Design the sequence.
């Protein structure tokens, strides 16, 4: 039976489809890039899709990957077929259980979208560092090299684990395979059934833990027997490769797709051979075949079964003619003799020679040269030109023993020089590249186009999508190939016949025409006439267009989309124009198919969306124009430099290159050796993503500073200064007499940075100052950026030159706190983000003395993702020091930092005491006493400077030198442990609990979005009842975990429940109290999020509703009050005024549940209401409970 | 006492029924209403605009942030899994139909031509015995004439009548300059009944915050008067359409006035929201007691007794302004060239 109809899927779906159908228990936990496998499994279970045995598998979300591994361990022990999906750090968390499962010969499959393990930095992208960390666990390891193979090897894994009893780790390359869309001939249920051995399943069931035939497993063994018992399993490993080959052969018989444990491709008498694993195989294979047709004797051995490593089969796969072998590892094992695949190949060849296997056994003279190369870390491109470079190296008399390819290593000189692009695609291949903006629907439309082309023309198609590292205003680049032959090209397009730019401003910061081939068709989404469009292009773009002789077209897709009620979603318009220009099918056929696709996509979801999109299709071509190319460049402006000229050297050399899209070209020497980067680079990148920005109507302003408080990106700044400091202010720079008595006679200023604004409008929403005659006009109003940007930039730049008010003069009121300089600015967070205002506030209050331990998640991505980062310094050079360890260990990580700071502080004070007799007594006294307020800290810093002077005078005294090095620790340091609910409620809860139970002075900020935001909206234990989220599509049936109550149970923990949008003053008070408390403090901060499903412009209103409806009570629990005989818990919100439903009604996460199943929603709502009231009453009861009550 | 009546081709045990409101959203309340003697259950409206809004907003909330960040290709489960269309409403109609023995009158507030007819058909298929069309447009567009607005109402009635077999009532607003003329046009489309009148959300102004606040107050007995006038006028027509009153019925006096003015059905909402479903039983008991006390043979005897054709002073219903010298004045004395 051969199945022939191709389906377009990505690697994750290809693997998950098999895993789901072959399993009974599926344990899941989100981690990039494997999350979609769990999400799909959950969706299939929610719609009651069946497995091969007619049952809906149990799909269970766990609190971490360690939990998922434990769950499948249990499920296997109890006799079910169990699976899980993961990557990177998640896989590392599974390792302890993997040893156990393998040691017990428990059949199971772990599917891995292989991803970089965090070292000097986190990376979400693909390489083999995670799977290679598991090669010692006893799991078999099977590699897939393409989307279709991800399906086929998944099937082989599930079948082979049952028969061999060896558990399997099935892996494919993260993103490159997991997210590539390609044609797959699906494996039907019958095919899978034919592979799955029912006898083996029965035997597995029979071995299960059961009180009906009990056994004991997991014993403790001693030196007398452990060793022998461990060896007892070895025959299963000996037998495993043959089982795998047999399953592959059966799969081949069923599908016509033949696989070997090691497959050889290329010249039959190759002399130079690459050994590789994963998607790199495809590139190497196609390049070798391309070169072989030109007579080059080159080939590739693809490793499929990496563990158990079958030496004889490997050697047999090598052509006897081989003279030189390059083993390519997609991982780096620092300090090892070589990277792991190389070591296996070297050992295999040695073994072959020793025992006389194959062509290498006896002919020592024929022993090939063996070298090892490293490529593709963190999804670094691996291209045909790089493969050729490797083959060229092998042809040298003495190839490099160890090399890298794909980078320029100018430190150790180990990298291979790579020649010009090598185009090995079938000449009939159509290649198209699309530059889009995240929210414009470009990627979705391109996935749609792939389907249309595949269905209509029968062509083979491939789609790969490159995303931005920022969340707001993110760009996307889509790479699409269509060809009459299968497309096995896992690398980006560098020469395209069609290039589209869906967002005109991208031309200002990206080399959009770089991938355009000579004579390519280039389509722009731009307003204006063709001449106006041409005139508006920067010189570089005009020059490239003329040099390449492109056919330039323009369409005002934004206007068409707007007129058709599609907002920013220009995808339909651009898709229609693409089909009209690309010539892949007749335009009228394309239009019909696009409309069909629209109907199919939206028909069940919204007839109105169908109507609007159909209208956009009909109007698109009416607005499509050819732009005639003149003979010469006419523009008088160039693309702006990526960073301003005043940026420091490192930013100019490194950051600017990354921003310009030339990060791949930076050599090794450009980089810090240990992952240490300068802070304060966010300000050098102006992204200009807002179309409207706030302008200041000074006549209305009441100087409340709420706008500055809520601005998620730190684009609105306020300050005060004496009038004389404004003497050099530019004409038109607005200042007002400072209100109130804090700064009599001073001037008040408000400035906006339009290049950093995302246009979220939160500032306008919060502004309370309305024009009485026209309340629509407020002290801030949104205006088109083009009209106001020049003035705003001039004023903002001038504003930044003004000195900030002295910290010790700023009173600690809500309003005046905003006069403190934010040391967190211009992050890549989503427009309207509900988390960043908390972090910004924290840096304003304590940033000059803070070390931040940041959990992995949104806050680590917008806080620490290159190219630029938002944490910055004040005029003294002080500011937050920031680090991210892991997702799960943040509390412990911050705790360790606290221990270190305490120790260094103690040591400094001990040295101070030791040296006291030689120092000024008053100075010693002042420096010995802890100071927490701004004046005290400023004073101590001055005293430290004075102390250093005294110490210098002591010459070589070792105690003085040591104190000089530690003197800064005499001034209070603040430790902030920062993360989201996924960390605090789930994966990191154990560590968080331990740190809360300590007496250390740490401040823990949990920004609770009630969902795993960064990985795309999976439920956490913070997800409220009745909310729909991934893994809880029908609405979470369980109550949200009450983390605050748990923490309060300790008694000695400062706890605050805050929502800045509801009561900003309470938030500020809580931050101050938490920081001043000498012990563990926990602030649980409500953070609205795009994963809640509403326009973030209403974020503050929703926060108010969350509080007013009782969803989010505001309170502070301060253990210090106990000593004063007062109740430690103080309620800051009034009893709920509105029903919970009013809060829920505005958010998609609740509304979809209500609309889908009103009865269920009503029941959940009633329970949630009851529990909310119960929590409220319990809190109020506690709030009235003082130590005196306890004494009675 | 015989309280029976004919409304929308349905023979009902009494004219009393809950009007379209959140009352019927809860199955428990529906059962209590039937127990309290509701002659029919009028279900709250299926709002096409709400469906369009829901679907578009969910699409926007789910699609806009999607496909832009490598770690989160989406932020919601695939929205194919959500039912945001009329399914829940139709299911609710089916459930009410299965739960009660009295007729079920569904209500529809359409938006698009296709929406009116498609949803009407679906409601019919769901088992509704009759359909109330909740037709109202705020005529804020200065380019749209009153004639055009009336045309839209008539067009909707025509479309729905041709789409379904079940009786169809049109629930009107009082804000038509020529209501009676409009009713004639609707009658020519063979509609089966009229509900007088709709009540609407009306924006209030928060004078502190300088904001508008949408509000819908419960009705007061005073609101009945407007309805009495039009019941009296419309029920006086020969070959008249069945009439229901909605808005301002709070006590038995109101019920009697409405019936005397010509109402075939009496819909109650605010009184039931305020006092609970049991209020309907009280109204029924009070109605019987009043009729018995006043020695009526049946309610039918009272129906239309005070309408324009039969009341002693018909001019009262037609007059907009109070005239001081009523005695000796009659219609024949009016000038002929009144504007």
Sequence:
């Amino acid at each position: 039976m051969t199945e022939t109809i191709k389906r377009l899927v990505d690697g994750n779906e290809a693997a998950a489809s098999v895993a789901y159908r072959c399993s009974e228990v599926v344990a899941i936990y989100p981690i990039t890039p494997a999350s979609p496998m769990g999400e799909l499994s959950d969706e299939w279970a929610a719609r009651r899709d069946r497995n091969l045995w007619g049952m809906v598998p149990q799909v269970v979300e766990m609190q971490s990957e360690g939990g998922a591994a434990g769950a499948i361990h249990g499920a296997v022990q109890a006799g079910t077929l169990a699976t899980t999906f993961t990557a990177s750090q998640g896989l590392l968390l599974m390792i302890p259980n993997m040893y156990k499962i393998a040691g017990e010969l428990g059949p199971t499959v772990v599917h891995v979208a292989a991803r970089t393990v965090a070292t000097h930095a986190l990376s979400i992208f693909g390489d083999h560092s995670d799977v290679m960390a598991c090669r010692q666990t006893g799991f078999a390891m099977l590699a897939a090299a393409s989307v279709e193979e991800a399906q086929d090897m998944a099937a082989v894994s599930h079948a082979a684990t049952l028969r061999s009893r060896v558990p399997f780790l099935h892996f494919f390359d993260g993103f490159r395979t997991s997210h590539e869309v390609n044609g797959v001939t699906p494996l039907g249920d019958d095919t899978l059934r034919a592979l799955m051995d029912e006898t083996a399943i029965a035997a597995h069931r029979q071995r299960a833990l059961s009180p009906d035939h009990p056994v004991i497993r997991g014993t403790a063994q001693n030196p007398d027997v452990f060793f022998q018992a461990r060896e007892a399993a070895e025959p299963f490993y000996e037998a495993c490769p043959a089982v795998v080959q047999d399953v592959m052969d059966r799969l081949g018989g069923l599908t016509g797709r033949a696989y070997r444990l090691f497959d050889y491709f290329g010249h039959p008498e190759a002399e130079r051979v690459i050994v590789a694993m994963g998607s790199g195989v495809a590139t190497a294979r196609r390049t070798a075949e391309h070169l072989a047709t030109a007579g080059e004797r080159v080939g590739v051995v693809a490793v499929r079964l990496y563990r158990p490593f079958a030496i004889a089969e490997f050697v047999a796969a090598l052509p006897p003619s081989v003279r030189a072998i390059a083993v390519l590892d997609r991982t780096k094992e620092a300090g090892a003799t070589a990277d792991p695949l190389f070591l296996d190949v070297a050992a295999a060849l040695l073994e072959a020679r020793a025992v006389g296997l194959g062509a290498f056994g006896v002919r020592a003279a024929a022993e090939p040269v063996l070298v090892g190369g490293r490529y593709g870390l963190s999804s670094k491109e691996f291209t045909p030109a790089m493969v050729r470079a490797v083959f060229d190296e092998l042809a040298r008399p003495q190839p490099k023993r160890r090399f890298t390819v794909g980078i320029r290593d100018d430190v150790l000189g180990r990298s291979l020089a790579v020649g010009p692009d090598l185009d090995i695609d079938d000449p009939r291949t159509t290649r198209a590249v699309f530059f889009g903006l995240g929210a414009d629907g470009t990627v979705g439309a391109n996935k749609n186009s792939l389907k249309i082309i595949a269905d209509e023309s029968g062509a083979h198609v491939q789609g790969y999508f490159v995303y931005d590292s920022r969340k707001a205003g993110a760009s996307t680049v889509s790479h699409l190939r269509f060809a009459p032959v299968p497309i096995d090209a896992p690398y980006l397009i560098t020469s395209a016949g069609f290039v589209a730019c869906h967002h005109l401003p991208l031309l200002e910061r990206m080399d959009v025409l770089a991938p355009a081939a000579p004579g390519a068709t280039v389509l722009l989404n731009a307003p204006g006439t063709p001449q106006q469009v041409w005139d508006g292009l920067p010189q570089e773009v005009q020059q490239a267009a003329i040099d390449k002789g492109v056919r330039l077209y323009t369409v005002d897709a934004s206007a068409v989309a707007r007129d058709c009620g599609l907002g920013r979603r220009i995808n339909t318009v651009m898709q229609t124009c693409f089909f009209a220009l690309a010539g892949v099918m007749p335009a009228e056929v394309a239009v019909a198919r696009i409309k069909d696709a629209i109907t199919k996509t939206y028909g069940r979801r919204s007839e109105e969306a169908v109507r609007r999109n159909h209208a956009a299709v009909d109007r698109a071509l009416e607005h499509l124009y050819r732009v005639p190319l003149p003979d010469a460049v006419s523009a008088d402006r160039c693309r702006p430099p990526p960073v301003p000229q005043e940026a420091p050297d490192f930013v100019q050399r490194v950051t600017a290159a990354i921003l310009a899209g030339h990060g791949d070209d930076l050599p090794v020497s450009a980089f810090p050796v240990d992952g240490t980067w300068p802070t304060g680079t966010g300000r050098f990148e102006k992204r200009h993503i807002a179309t409207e920005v706030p302008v200041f109507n000074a006549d209305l302003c009441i100087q409340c500073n709420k706008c500055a408080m809520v601005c998620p990106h730190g684009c609105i700044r306020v300050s005060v200064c004496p009038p004389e400091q404004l003497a050099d202010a530019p004409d038109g720079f607005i200042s007002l007499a400072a209100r109130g008595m804090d700064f009599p006679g001073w001037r008040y200023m408000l400035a906006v940075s339009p290049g950093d604004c995302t246009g979220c409008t939160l500032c306008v929403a919060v502004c309370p100052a309305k024009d009485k005659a026209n309340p629509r006009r407020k002290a801030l109003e949104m205006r088109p950026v083009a009209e106001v940007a020049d003035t705003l930039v001039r004023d903002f730049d001038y504003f930044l030159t003004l000195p900030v008010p002295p910290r010790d003069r700023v009173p600690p009121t809500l309003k005046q706190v905003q006069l403190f300089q934010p040391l967190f600015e211009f992050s890549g967070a989503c427009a309207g983000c509900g988390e960043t205002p908390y972090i910004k506030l924290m840096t304003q209050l304590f940033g000059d003395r803070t070390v931040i331990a940041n959990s992995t998640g949104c806050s680590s991505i917008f806080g620490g993702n290159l190219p630029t980062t938002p944490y910055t310094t004040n005029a003294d050079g002080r500011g937050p020091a920031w680090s991210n360890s892991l997702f799960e260990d943040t509390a412990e990580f911050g705790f360790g930092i606290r221990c270190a700071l305490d120790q260094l502080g103690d040591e400094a004070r001990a040295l101070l005491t030791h040296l006291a007799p030689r120092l000024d007594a008053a100075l010693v006294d002042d420096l010995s006493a802890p100071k927490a307020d701004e004046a005290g800290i400023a004073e101590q810093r001055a005293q430290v400077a004075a102390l250093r002077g005294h110490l210098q005078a002591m010459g070589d005294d070792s105690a003085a030198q040591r104190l000089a090095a530690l003197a800064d620790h005499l001034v209070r340091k603040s430790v902030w442990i920062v993360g989201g609910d996924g960390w605090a409620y789930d994966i990191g809860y154990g560590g968080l609990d331990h740190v809360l139970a300590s007496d250390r002075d740490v401040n823990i900020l949990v920004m609770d979005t009630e969902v795993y935001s960064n990985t795309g909206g999976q439920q956490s234990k913070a997800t409220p009842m009745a909310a729909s989220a991934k893994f809880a599509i029908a609405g979470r049936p369980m109550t949200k975990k009450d983390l605050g109550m748990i923490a309060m149970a300790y008694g000695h923990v400062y706890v605050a429940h805050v929502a800045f949008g509801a009561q900003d003053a309470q938030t500020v008070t809580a931050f101050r109290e938490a920081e001043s408390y000498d012990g563990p403090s926990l602030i649980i901060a409500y953070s609205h999020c795009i994963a809640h499903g509403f326009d973030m412009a209403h974020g503050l209103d929703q926060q108010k509703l969350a509080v007013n409806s009782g969803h989010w009570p505001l309170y502070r629990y301060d253990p210090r009050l106990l000593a004063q005989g007062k109740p430690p818990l103080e309620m800051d919100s009034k009893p709920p005024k509105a029903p919970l439903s009013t809060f829920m009604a505005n958010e998609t996460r609740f509304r979809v549940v209500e609309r889908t199943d009103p009865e269920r929603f009503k029941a959940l709502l009633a329970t949630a209401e009851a529990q909310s009231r119960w929590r409220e009453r319990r809190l109020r009861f506690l709030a009235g409970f003082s130590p005196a009550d306890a004494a009675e | 006492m015989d309280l029976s009546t004919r409304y929308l081709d349905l023979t009902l045990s009494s004219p009393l029924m809950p009007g379209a409101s959140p009352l019927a959203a809860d199955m428990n309340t529906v059962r209590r209403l039937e127990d309290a003697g509701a002659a029919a259950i009028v279900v709250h409206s299926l709002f096409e605009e709400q469906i369009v809004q829901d679907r578009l907003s969910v699409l926007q909330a789910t699609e806009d942030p999607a496909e832009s960040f490598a770690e989160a290709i989406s932020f919601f489960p695939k929205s194919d899994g959500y039912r945001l269309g009329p399914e829940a409403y139709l299911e609710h109609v089916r459930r009410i139909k299965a739960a009660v023995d009295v007729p079920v009158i569904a209500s529809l507030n359409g938006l698009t031509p296709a929406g009116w007819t498609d949803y009407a058909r679906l409601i019919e298929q769901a088992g509704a015995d009759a359909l109330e069309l909740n037709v109202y447009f705020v005529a804020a567009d200065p380019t749209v004439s009153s004639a055009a607005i009336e045309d839209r109402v008539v067009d909707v009635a025509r479309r729905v009548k041709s789409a379904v077999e079940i009786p169809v009532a049109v629930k009107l607003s009082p804000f038509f300059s020529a209501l009676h003329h409009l009713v004639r046009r609707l009658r020519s489309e063979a509609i089966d009944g009229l509900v007088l009148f709709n009540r609407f959300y009306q924006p209030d102004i928060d004078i502190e915050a300088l904001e508008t606040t949408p509000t819908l107050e419960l009705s007061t007995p005073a609101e009945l008067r407007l309805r009495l006038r039009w019941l009296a006028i419309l029920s006086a027509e020969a070959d008249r359409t069945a009439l229901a009153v909605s808005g301002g019925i709070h006590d038995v006096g109101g019920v009697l006035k409405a019936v005397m003015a010509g109402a075939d059905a009496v819909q109650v909402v605010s009184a039931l929201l305020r006092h609970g479903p049991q209020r309907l039983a009280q109204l029924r008991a009070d109605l019987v007691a009043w009729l018995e006390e006043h020695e009526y043979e049946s309610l039918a005897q009272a129906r239309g007794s005070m309408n324009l054709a039969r009341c002693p002073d018909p001019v009262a219903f037609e007059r907009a302004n109070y005239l001081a010298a009523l005695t000796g004045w009659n219609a024949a004395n009016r000038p002929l060239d009144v504007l």
In short: Chain A touches chain B through 64 residues (CB under 8 Å).
